[in-house]
Amino acid sequence: MAELWKSLPSWVRNIVVPVLVLVLAWNIVTFVFGVVGALLAMLVKLLVVVGIAAAVVILVKKAAKS
What we know:
By secondary structure, the chain is an all-alpha fold. It has one domain (about 1-65). It contains 2 helices and no strands. The protein has helices at about 1-5, 10-65. The protein starts with a helix and ends with a helix.
């Protein structure tokens, strides 16, 4: 690996490789934020559905008593 790195021209080592590393890091960060955001969105939707279901159950029980 060291031979391959030393065989690269200096402009590749100093410009191209850091740019590729930054692009890869940016893609990984956006992927992580996307996954976390999707999980949070699903959690919020689940909480809304559970809240609506609880309200329906309470209303049905009140309606059954009267």
